[in-house]
């Protein structure tokens, strides 16, 4: 009786949390998927992995990996009407750990992603001057070093006050610490009341970046050297198509760019109306996301091409990552008149992209709290406040003078292998534990639209195989080529590539394990009676179906007597029923 009451209260709260309109939902998903990484990561991945030829594996992975998993997460949220923990628990209690893995990953990524927002805030505030501070050298004691690269000097000395490596924290950078507090206060105010208040904010955080990108595109293509920049970006290298690592990079970029595995899509979709067209939304949002990456890359390299033309800087010497936005592109902005205005517009755009992505990442955490006892007994405002306070305290380690190296550590490990494993388990959970055909039937009952043959085929075979290969390949790649990061040599005003120390690798391993280990822990904890015999029966049905030709349109169906379900277990019954009616 007590459990029914708790579930009723949770459902009542869920009903009060709903999108004000379909447009708010679409804008929130676009703002979540399209983030800062679309502007600084995709352009250099494309150039370093074959230029124009990189688009071939990129678009193929979008179709066979990105779209199917995006659609799956949207369907799960809409069908189960819960957060990521409640949704996977409703499919099967054994899968609760899958939800917890997504929540932990979202929480950890949210901590360091907010620091990137802090950097954008700092540059925005620094732009309100008559002359951009990174366009000239104000420190006479390091005048010659500064002249070598003014924007790099300002980034490491004016903004970060960086030390020489990750082992030297160097004390707190108080100006960034205060901006970090401001960022979490803004996030709290925006998310405390749920998607109703958040949905209004995304009108600005979604539309403004596209307006600025369009303006920068029109301005950029008219600059001298812009054509050389775009040509440098898309110059094809057809030999790269035969490089397995290029396909791995393309698949990984699709996975991270769409925000798959974080649980944010499940949370967002759970606030939808029951008859929402998830397939249409999924295709549209994924295409917009990839289109934005390509369009943003063109804009970026138009400006960098002009920078190369004016200063004689080789484009191949310009790095990727945060340095693209805060070093190379900020220097390019100094060549545009009026530079102060362009700088304000650009870094305000980065803020919108970052905050929009943070909404979706953290909504996974807050929506899940509404489904888990005893958190579902506490008002949402207290959930949000607690998470923001804890995140701020942990984030202080990332706004020390060596904090940017901690951000690099988290970026390397926090959302890498764990997300791939989460995505793989999601496909297995829906296709085999719940049953793809059963899932399609339930979606049809709920929304009037079932799941098509192609998507079911992807969930059963194609997407899991790709993610398994990607997971194994990533593990092997990390072993063969251990992660590195860029340190700052103050004596030369230059960046130096270095290996993470052993203790940092250990922390990185903990970040991966703390998320992944939730899956087997909760699976064992919630295992059903006679789980060994049930697992054997389940695997037998899976493998027998894998090697047997069956129509995918529902023809030649047979029935299974539901009375036999208790003898084989509900999970195996669902699998048998699904495979008999594929």
**How far from one another are the termini?**
38 Å
Strand order, biggest sheet?
1-2
Would you tell me the structural class of the helices and strands?
Answer: mainly alpha
Total beta-strand segments: 2
Shape: globular
Q: How many strands, what sense, and barrel or not for the largest sheet?
A: 2 strands, antiparallel
Mean pLDDT across all residues, rounded? Answer: 83
Radius of gyration: 25 Å
Supply the number of helical segments: 26
Provide the β-strand percentage band: under 5%
Give short descriptive properties of this protein.
two-stranded antiparallel ribbon, disordered N terminus, disordered C terminus, 26 helices, mainly alpha, 2 strands, 582 residues
Give the helices and strands, then pairings.
Layout: H1 2-16, H2 22-33, H3 37-40, H4 42-48, H5 55-80, H6 84-91, H7 96-126, H8 143-148, H9 150-159, H10 174-191, H11 195-221, H12 226-234, H13 244-257, H14 264-270, H15 278-311, H16 322-333, H17 339-369, H18 380-395, H19 403-413, H20 417-447, H21 453-480, E1 484-489, E2 494-499, H22 502-516, H23 518-525, H24 531-546, H25 565-568, H26 570-580
Antiparallel strand pairs: 1-2
Helix pairs in contact: 2-11, 2-14, 2-15, 2-17, 5-6, 5-13, 5-14, 5-15, 5-20, 5-21, 6-7, 7-10, 7-17, 7-18, 7-19, 7-20, 7-22, 7-23, 9-16, 10-18, 11-15, 11-17, 12-15, 14-17, 15-16, 19-22, 20-21, 20-22, 20-26, 24-26
